[in-house]
Design goal:
- By secondary structure, this protein is an alpha+beta fold.
- A 5-stranded antiparallel beta sheet has the order 1-2-3-5-4, with helices on both faces. A 3-stranded antiparallel beta sheet has the order 6-9-10.
């Protein structure tokens, strides 16, 4: 055979043939079947992973943009007339929400002592435990109540904060004027740590506190644009200032009496539904008569003498 009559230039895929052509051996049928699917699998896998990664990145960007817009519109749920505070500012004011600054704890949050404006203003920061069911509703209910009320015997709200912490978790807090004498509960039932220097209230002080609380309730029930029922009145929710003047706080379970009283006497709830308040202090929230205030006043009078 005259091999010089053949030319294989440009045919690098040729294989087999006679030895004189010196072509590479052709793969067997099993090797061909094995080789083709492997390339396809690698190609399909690469395309799939790239597509998933692209979709995830786009979704994350849209999510962050949406969340940022939502948070920017909720920096201060109380309203634009209140100052804006960030999570970082509150974290710094409370020394990282240190346990040394913890001054109280409730069902939905903890209260920390904080210092704002380079030590010029002492505040109480109520941080809500949003991982608990109902905590966010309690925060919104308290904001709704506090933005509509002003009275010398109610807690003085400074501002609120609805943002994210450094880990990207939702963060809600309320900032109040600090009450140096703590709660009425700490005076009526001091803890073991203060038994050596017990607090006490004389008759006149107790009477003044009862009058302060009665004045606050009278304002909430009869002098607000929309009547508000507190629903959780108890000694731990009554705070005392330097002069032992009482201030009612914690409106997380508050209810608003429907403005259209001619149509309905139904209580419009701003938080959870069902029994409200603390066991032992549950107020008759469904009693919608003028005797309601009297019942609360008399009940609280007995609480003042419960030592």
């Amino acid at each position: 055979m005259n091999v010089s009559a053949f030319s294989i230039v440009g045919n690098d895929k040729l294989c087999g043939g006679i030895k004189a052509l010196e072509l590479p051996a052709c793969p067997t049928q099993g090797e061909r079947k094995k080789l083709f699917p492997r390339k396809v699998i690698i190609l399909v896998t690469s395309i799939t992973l790239s597509t998933i990664l692209l979709i995830a990145c786009v979704s994350a960007v849209f999510y962050l943009i949406k969340r940022s817009k939502r948070k920017s519109s909720m920096d201060c749920p109380l309203g634009s007339q209140y100052p804006t505070l960030s999570y970082a500012e509150l974290q710094h004011a409370t020394n990282g929400f240190s346990s040394a600054n913890l001054i109280g704890a409730g069902s939905y949050g903890s209260v920390y002592k904080g210092i704002l404006n380079s030590g010029e203003q002492i505040v109480a920061v109520k941080v809500f435990k949003l991982q608990l069911l109902g905590a966010n509703k309690s925060f919104l209910a308290e904001c709704e109540a506090l933005r509509n009320i002003r009275h010398r015997n109610l807690v003085n709200i400074i501002t609120s904060c609805s943002s994210m912490d450094f880990k990207g978790n939702d963060f809600n807090a309320l900032v109040f004027e600090f009450m140096p004498n703590g709660s009425l509960e700490s005076w009526l039932h001091p803890t073991q740590s203060v038994q050596q220097d017990p607090k006490s209230l004389d008759l006149i002080q107790r009477l003044n506190i009862a009058i302060d609380v009665a004045s606050a309730l009278d304002y909430l029930h009869h002098h607000c644009e929309t009547a508000i029922i507190h629903c959780d009145l108890k000694p731990s929710n009554v705070l005392l200032d330097n002069e032992l003047c009482a201030h009612v706080g914690d409106f997380g379970l508050s209810r608003f009496l429907g403005a259209a009283r001619g149509k309905t006497n139904r209580l419009q709830s701003s938080s959870s539904i069902g029994i409200r308040g603390t066991i032992g202090y549950v107020a008759p929230g469904n009693v919608l008569s003028h005797n309601y205030c009297i019942i609360i006043y008399i009940s609280f009078w007995y609480i003042l003498y419960d030592t």
